Amino acid sequence: MAPAPRLLPVLTLLLLTAAVGPCAGAGRGGGRVDLWPMPSSVTRGAQTLHVSRDLKLTTAGSNYSDGRGILRDAFARMVAVVNMDHVINGSYQGAPVLAGVNVVVRSPDDKLNFGMDESYKLSVPATGSPLYAQIEAQTVYGALHALENILHWHIVDEQSFPLEIPSYPKLWNGAYSYSERYTMDEAIDIVQYAEKRGVNVLAEIDVPGHALSWGVGYPSLWPSATCKEPLDVSSDFTFKVINGILSDFSKVFKFKFVHLGGDEINTSCWTTTPRIKSWLIQHGMNESDAYRYFVLRAQKIALSHGYDIINWLGSGVAEKVVAAGLRCIVSNQDKWYLDHLDATWEGFYMNEPLTNIYNPEQQKLVLGGEVCAWGEHIDASDIQQTIWPRAAAAAGIMFVLTNLFFEFEERLWTPIAKVAKDTRSVTARLARFRCLLNQRGVAAAPVAAYGRSAPSEPDSCLRQ
Ligand SMILES: *[C@@H]1O[C@H](CO)[C@@H](O)[C@H](O)[C@H]1NC(C)=O
Ligand SMILES: *[C@@H]1O[C@H](CO)[C@@H](O)[C@H](O)[C@H]1NC(C)=O
Ligand SMILES: *[C@@H]1O[C@H](CO)[C@@H](O)[C@H](O)[C@H]1NC(C)=O
Ligand SMILES: *[C@@H]1O[C@H](CO)[C@@H](O)[C@H](O)[C@H]1NC(C)=O
What is the mean pLDDT of residues 25-36? Predict the structure, then answer.
């Protein structure tokens, strides 16, 4: 027997992101539109649509051939999600039924990378026979955003060196264990998996600090056997290894940027190791000169492999960085670190990356923000509920994974003018988004309190 027809809000089923144009269907609860994050523009109608069980994908008027099946697979994933809810057979007579989605992509093909047009317009008309929703996008990746949310996987490592580097095959001796490693083929799989979902993979090697694990395979990268970080600045071998890593990276990680870390450095090993100390004196460098020399030389290597570079900087520096004409991604640890379990979703939501940046030209240099979940209080047992829904509160939808820490990243989605001044007005919308995540098998924690808190009592997902 077919499941009893139920009134379904088409909008909230079809997408977690944006809708523009005349829409039939809307969120539960009166005039509210239950979308997270809020799109740049949205209008709604008053009618309710049913979603057909055999929803069809059509591409009338599209220039994109979908040779790799990116669109087809994304549509199948969306249909699987829709079918988890209560959909009806196409023959249902009682109310308008959405028969399918027509996707029009203007560009015939596109390589996923930084700066591509990922916008889209989704309209769900109130009438039509058969009735089709229409997605219009410049690129197939824009169309993907209209079909589903998107995760960003970003491979990084710190105390563990989990990735196979063919140029220096002993580097991954520094992994936590034999089984906690990625082969190059697995890295390629990850990148391809992400790419098919419109997700860029940004790889990081954090140098010269946070690189102790490198010396497990190659001890000469350490200043000495008793003083193991930062990497030996005086040795050409250090830079040969960095070159080998970035050379291997460039065959796998095709994103425009590579992350070179550069944070939290304590250079005392450079002055307490006699060999390095003499090198500093010989080159007329103090510790900060040597740090600068290291960072610049590593950057030059990255540039030679065709990468643009991202480095970590201290806190409160965004305004200075953009004043100097450089681009930046904001990730302040007091507000946007998910491993801070006492950080509330309201804090994530209200954090403003453009703080103290008023010049519109300089505002454009802020590419977005990144919320990070470092490994301090997180492992496979609680990662999802630590990350969600707070990452979503920062409009963070992109996903990053390493053996050591997890990181999210996202160009901020909702225009500042539309960010609510009072978080109470968006709580219900975020709660609904969390329920969608739960429905899709993501163990997002209740919205009510701090990171990964338990529900306070048995209740509807929507009220928790
Ligand atoms: C609805 O679809 C299912 C399978 O797709 C079929 O078995 C069932 O007979 C259909 N019911 C009606 C009322 O058409
Ligand atoms: C498809 O490509 C043709 C040729 O470049 C162009 O004229 C047309 O506008 C494109 N279609 C869409 C929907 O953009
Ligand atoms: C740097 O490391 C040395 C040696 O471990 C330690 O004595 C010193 O306190 C550290 N400096 C800072 C600023 O943490
Ligand atoms: C290091 O030397 C540079 C000049 O080479 C100087 O500007 C800087 O202040 C020195 N830093 C420290 C910490 O002594």
Answer: 53
